[in-house]
Write a structure and sequence with these properties.
By secondary structure, the chain is mainly α. It is built from twelve helices and four strands; from the N terminus they run H-E-H-H-E-H-H-H-E-H-H-H-E-H-H-H. The strands form two sheets. A two-stranded parallel ribbon has the order 1-2. Strands 3-4 form a two-stranded parallel sheet. The longest helix has 21 residues. The radius of gyration is 22 Å and the shape is globular. It starts with a helix and ends with a helix.
């Protein structure tokens, strides 16, 4: 919370044609989403070929917020076998599902890059205070942010586990220091740019037959 996710998306993607980019934000799951497995709601928002899809939060909440607040599992209508598993086994199974899912995406042409905007506890405190003392930022604050902050150490342990378990060459995690917003946004932008530059992208070319007709097209326009 308060690491700057929304602002980073806005700043980094400001120069991208919105026709080729889509942002999906994931809040608490709806009743419909809870009727499906925990990957369903993100899978249906995957970008089409040739588009950039940005997830503001993602299925990683299922091994982060849900792990720190295990009461969330009670609402997920899990099958009996899942409920009866030891908790460490359940999280390992979720890590396996994530690894399998991202490997499947990579094998089918999706480039996956993941960012952890790592804000310090002291900086988060200052940003929360700013939200509580600046009327223009009141809308950003939620009392739930303070509840989560009380579990800081638990969240850090959960982050460490998910980074170790799910960072792979085909779906790497980038841990970005987030106390300096300008540096953070440049670091994210550079990583995204490098990923795009590594793709075999080319401007579509006209065939020789099409090019041979250009003189006729030009003459037609000039004689209107």
């Amino acid at each position: 919370d308060a690491a700057g996710k929304d602002g980073t998306i806005r700043a980094v993607m400001s120069g991208v044609n919105p026709a080729g980019c889509q942002v999906s934000s994931f809040k608490a799951p709806s009743d419909e989403e809870l009727e499906h497995d925990w990957l369903w709601r993100s899978v249906k928002r995957l970008p089409e070929r040739g588009r950039i899809g940005i997830f503001n939060r993602s299925y990683y909440e299922e091994v982060l917020a849900v792990r720190v607040n295990e009461g969330f599992l009670d609402k997920q209508r899990l099958p009996v076998l899942a409920v009866d598993r030891p908790r460490d086994v359940l999280w390992q199974h979720r890590f396996e599902s994530i690894r399998d899912h991202e490997l499947h995406l990579a094998r089918n042409g999706t480039v996956v890059i993941k960012f952890w905007l790592n804000v310090s506890k002291d900086e988060q405190r200052e940003r929360f205070l700013s939200r509580l003392t600046n009327a223009d930022k009141f809308w950003k604050f939620s009392k739930h942010d303070l509840s989560a902050r009380e579990h800081w150490d638990d969240y850090m342990a959960a982050y460490e586990a998910l980074l170790n378990e799910t960072s792979r060459a085909h779906a790497p995690w980038y841990a970005i220091p987030a106390d300096d917003k300008a540096f953070m946004r440049v670091a994210v932008a550079r990583t995204v740019a490098q990923a795009l530059e590594a793709l075999p992208l080319e401007i579509p070319e006209k065939s020789a037959e099409e090019l041979a007709r250009f003189d006729d097209h030009i003459a037609r326009l000039e004689t209107e």
